[in-house]
TrEMBL record:
Gene3D superfamilies: NAD(P)-binding Rossmann-like Domain. This is NAD-dependent epimerase/dehydratase family protein. It holds the Pfam family Epimerase. Residues 10-211 form the NAD-dependent epimerase/dehydratase domain. It comes from Paraburkholderia agricolaris.
Amino acid sequence: MQAIGKVGLFGAAGAAGQIIAAALSAAGRDYRVVGRSRAPLEAAFGHDPHAEIVTWNPDEPASISAAAAGLQTVIYLVGVPYDRFAEHPPLMEKTLAGVTAAGVERLILIGTVYPYGRARGNPISEDHPREPHTFKGKMRLEQEKLVLAAHGRASGSGRLSTLVLRLPDFYGPGIERSLINGVFEAAARGKRAQMIGPVDVPHEFIYLPDIGPVVETLTRTADAYGRWWHLAGTGTITQREVARQAYALAGREPKLMVAGKTMLRMLGLFNPLMRELVEMNYLMTEPVVLDDTALMKLIGPVRKTSYEDGIRRCFDAARKAASASAGTQRDSATTA
């Protein structure tokens, strides 16, 4: 039986990295977190005796190899700004060269639904064509192709095994980059939620803390490599229903301001991020819903948080943050 080696999280400081690290720590496994700056890594992982903190420069081959030295598995979570998606393929190419030079045995890319383009009927399984019609989808597809083409490449004294784990949109307590995080914050503060519409189309979200145990399992499941897999949420829900439940927990009626594609275009004249959201708005009108039957057959059933429980946890976290912020403001006013 092959020994379970050390895992490295490249691009670890984000929400997914912290969640996967928590699952590794809960399993009693040592892991390495890798990022450009030490301070956010110290803040997120400095308390965990299982964590080793390493900084890197992903533009320097020697730095990549040094960050990967001694690792059995690399989990790739490196993000780029939404208006710089062209950086994804060259960053992945450099990382693959560095990890193979370091003798890494396995690499997992946490992926998205972008490479599929428009769904030909939901839910979709892994054999759905990858035909992206957006620039971001094409860049993510090129990134994936590099990862999968590297499967079987010589790495140290062995061979590199690779896989892609594809996720839908995500949400979770305090996860600012979630499409719906602002709903929980607005409900907790009694303010109007700003949402990207349409909000009445069923959409799939995954409760991000649920992915940690799945990824930990995949790091030690040799049969999983050489392909891509889906990890789905618990069905679909509309954004309006998310808002209804969140505001109900606050004892309030929902207050929403919804920006559709036309408004995004207008806002994009002044805000680069809004401009970048326009081409991906098809996912709001023509959502992609994942079928993860294949993954469940491989690793068995996994725990998935219901929307009701997930929304409640997100609201509770937002309410706690709002109370802490209000307390800080009161203290500042008192000492002023």
